Amino acid sequence: MEKVVAIAKMSPGIVRFYFDSKAAMLVASLQFLAAEFEERLLIPVAELKTTPVAALELMVDLYLDPDIASPRKVSVWYAFWGEASSRQEYYDICGQKDESFAALVRELIERLIVDASRPHLDPDGIALGLIGALEIMWQDFAFRTEHEIDRTAAKRRCMAYLRSVFPGQFRLAGDRAVPAAHPPRLPGWTYADARIHVAERDTLFEPAWTLVGHESDIPRGGDYLTLDTGVERVLVVRGSSGAVHALRNSCPESPHALVASRRGRFDAGIECKLHGLQFSLDGRARPGTGHADLTALDVSPLSGLICAKSRSAGGAPNPRLWFDTQPPLGLTGLGPPVEIPVAADWKAVVEQWLEPPPHLLPSPAEDCIVWHAPPLNDSAWSARLYLRLTGCIPPVAWRRQFTAPNQLIELRPDGLSVIQAVPAAPGRCLVRRLDYTVLPPEDGARAVLYLVRRLAPYARRTMLEVAESVQRGMIDFGYEIAAGGGSSPAVDWFRRLLAARIPALAR
Questions:
Q1: What's the pTM?
Q2: Which of 175, 190, 222 represents a domain boundary (last residue)?
């Protein structure tokens, strides 16, 4: 008692007034430690449950903090644990503290496994490993004085364990905050996460206009064109009066595609042969059939180009605002779209597109980046032949425009190309290329297109393989890229745009 009152700087009488026995005073001391642990560590960490990386970083920091893990307090914890087998009060208090801490660690590890898309990991084993690492640090503290303890090294060792299990999720010790002008690469898990995939479809793609084709693809009444935009199966039909209608390519009775081919012609209106349904060319059900009309989509013509989007989704600027100079007139299609399945997320593909120029960026409110490629160098065979076939003397710069979220449009003297990165599944996409020309077939239109694809490799297999490799490096191997390191201003702009619209991408 003399030791206790000396440390507390109180009189023995006051202590005896509050505690009728030494045992009661010891229980109160243990209750104080448990309450402090809950208030100083469990509650603040639990408040960050939705961001498990930040929560685990804070947990390690607080668990090894000198106010909680001083040599004296750690020694007291172990002293009580040593007596717990013979004192039920000690066992209950210490056990409740350990159970609450273990449950919180396991919950955070479970959330991180989901966020990192690593379902093969065992949350119990990983949580046990982290708790064990922290306990080992405590045991070392108990046998040292404060000036002998290297708390920075202890925290670094515990974080090294977490980084070894979740590579790429935790920042290295000493990392400095990233300036706002250079946002970090999006977290690796966002490139293959099912929930992010759904959020992107709903927030980015559903309200966006997508170029479906050109009016030259449907020259006569009854001609149709189809396209999968990633969120809609679009059916574009030219009516008998010449008007162009955009409809959902889906049967009202069952969500199967009414038309499977890219192009064709309806002789007697639209019909579902499976259910015996019939519709006029504008999507209205035939009178007397008693079934619903086809869902109408918004359609917008742009110098012969046909763009469509879901009618229920608003907010996207009209395609007429895409260009400061109108696309060339007299375009005709050069065959069906080229479609390439890619084992990478659409975001990884777009970042590859934006890695070279542009250097000039729009204001953050705009959805487009426009840049001009320098005039072709006629020292290369492909460039010389392109210039000769198109009569470009002197050479003319190509105009390229990225329109969020996923379309790259290229205007050239010979025509126009649209390359789209269409989300197919979490971590996978389809790269589609639509090509149109102003050159007649006899002037070598297809030869020019071959040269264009060599000179602008946005849909070339080798370029897409780079996107696949980058994604695999981030997700499978946990490789990290320094904030803003190696990326162009356009890529930084793209990441900021996505994070502003889907905050989870910046988590």
A1: 0.65
A2: 175
